[in-house]
Structure formats: structure tokens, C-alpha cells
Amino acid sequence: MSPFFDTPAARFAIEAVREASILVRRVQREMIGDAITKDDKSPVTVADFAAQAVVAHRLAARFPDAVLVGEESAGGLKDAASRSTLEQITRFVQTVEPSATAESVCDWIDRGSNEAPATYWTLDPVDGTKGFLRHDQYAVALALVENGKVVLGALGCPELEGGVRPAKGGAGSILLAARGEGAWVQSLAEPNGKWTRLTASTSGDPAGARLLRSVEKSHTDADSIGDLATKLGVRADPVPMDSQAKYAVLAAGGGDVILRLLSPSRPDYREKVWDQAAGSIVVEEAGGRVSDLDGKPLDFSHGRTLATNRGVLVTNGPLHEAFLAGLKAIGA
């Protein structure tokens, strides 16, 4: 077992992501039933805020000077209209931190409202809203960034087993990666279980490339992805999947390519740091490659977004240059 598992940062990431993953699964189990309507986002709202509150509180206790850059802020929870939502969030936080009050929960959430300094942690408390609501794939994503580079990342994937096999209601997976130390997976349900090293696929044939595609089409340019697949002669059926769980699957060899092209409706959009940090290091440490659509490494030193990067291309490594060339050929 690599000694990096015993470093304070790695131990914190494992514990925090495991606790947050179990918490959001509890929210899902208790709040999402057969009667929920398609447009009811309250369960994921409660899960998002509760998970960020807990991780932020644990981070402050473990590393008092650490900065968290999180997806959520508590501003909207403090008005009268949101009182019942805040009460629900507080109730769930109290299941793991009994001292929590509505006021302290808001304070903990707002610890993630920072701009990014040179060194910071970044959190996506529930990545994959639609997957969470469907009891499908979603992830808790936490990463440590130093001087623009991700040095450690953890993913909690409650609906994956072995980091690669969809298993609704199963044991789940937690993945950990550190720069130069590899990418590893353990059962989410077994804190003392075996850690297994992950290795991306070695396929270099674009025709057989398995594209892991977002279920939510607004997140990318689906038409251009289709054009790219045609250009490269991709014959393998795409694998639809929400969230950074896709990065886990690619790292485990269950897929080969992930594309985040710019949606025509949002040509100036730039990725948020929490949407890419943890997943990117998991893939890279499994032998894959991550860049923007122009082949540049992702730069996490520009605040809360990847301001100098355009889109994202993630591959197993051997396929990367072919897909970059294909993107250039279709003008994406």
C-alpha cells in the first residue's frame, strides 16, 4: 500500500468524501419517492447544501487555515421563503454533526464561497443532479489544488462498484488519486477494505473508442460530438452517464473518451474548477490524459473557473492525439 494513504490530506479526503457520500445517499433515500415530480429539485438542493456544510466543517476542524472553493453559498437560504429547506438541511447535517444549528450550517456552507488562492480545496457536493434524482450516477468530488495543479483528488460514487460497474443501491465506490501515486478504488461501504489500483485502457483505435457521454445534453454540444464520431469512424456505442462518475469509469478501463464541448447556446462558458479537479487527477493517475479542446493542460489557478481553457477532452491516453486532430478537423 502506498504511504500517501497515511498523509493528513489523503486521510481527510477519504473520510470527508465517504461521510458526504453516505449523507447524500441518506437524503436521496428519504426524500426521493415515487410521488416526486420531475421538476422537484428539493432533494438535490438539500443534499448539496448538507454535504458542503459537513465537508467545510470537517476541513476547518482538521486544517484551520485551509481555503475551500465550493459550488454552493448560503445566501438564498437565509430568507423566510427558504426556512423549511434550511430546516431540512440542518436536520440531515445533525445526523453526522449533532451540534449543528441552522445558523452554523449557513456559516459552514459559506466557508466554500471563497475565491481561489494559490492553494485550496475544491468541492462539488453532488455532481450529477439529474442522475441523483433518478437514483442513477452522481458523485461527491473533492480535490486539493496547489499552484494551478491538482495534487490530490477523491470521488465518492455511491452507484458504482469497483469504480466501473453501475450498481444502483450497491456498495458504492470511493476513488483516491495523488500526483505520482496512482489512482485507487475502495468499496464505499467498507472503510477497512482493500484498495485496488486502477489502470485506464490501452486502446489506440478510434473506431473502437467507447465515448462516455453526458445524459444531460445541455452540458455539451451533442451534434458536434456526433460529427466527431463520424469523422473518426467511431463504431462503438456511446455510454450515457452523469457526473464525474464518468472519470471513474474511464480510469478503471470501462470507457475511453469524455468530451465537454462548448454548447452552442453558451459559447463563452468556462468550466468550474469543482467540475473537473477530482476527476482529472483520477484519470491522469490511472494513465489517461486530460486537456482542453486545444490540447492545453487544465489550469486551476484562475479563480473559480478554468478561465484560460476551452472545454475539456479526457481520454485513456493513446487516443488523445487522434481526438484532438478530429476536433480541429470539425472546427470544434
UniProtKB/TrEMBL annotation:
Catalytic activity: 3'-phosphoadenylyl sulfate + H2O = adenosine 5'-phosphosulfate + phosphate; adenosine 2',5'-bisphosphate + H2O = AMP + phosphate; adenosine 3',5'-bisphosphate + H2O = AMP + phosphate
Cofactor(s) recorded in Swiss-Prot or TrEMBL: Mg(2+)
CDD domains recorded: PAP_phosphatase
EC number in record: 3.1.3.7
Classification via Pfam families: Inositol_P
Keywords annotated in UniProt: Hydrolase, Magnesium, Metal-binding
InterPro entries: DPNP, Inositol_monoP_metal-BS, Inositol_monoP_superfamily, Inositol_monophosphatase-like, Inositol_monophosphatase_CS
GO biological process, one term: sulfate assimilation
One MF annotation (Gene Ontology) recorded for this entry: 3'(2'),5'-bisphosphate nucleotidase activity
Origin superkingdom: Bacteria
UniProt enzyme class: hydrolase
Binding site for Mg(2+): E71, D124, D127, D275
Family: Belongs to the inositol monophosphatase superfamily.
PANTHER family linked: 3'(2'),5'-BISPHOSPHATE NUCLEOTIDASE, PHOSPHATASE
Stated name of the protein: 3'(2'),5'-bisphosphate nucleotidase
Species annotation: Lacipirellula limnantheis
Phylogenetic classification of the source organism: Bacteria, Pseudomonadati, Planctomycetota, Planctomycetia, Pirellulales
This protein's encoding gene: suhB_2
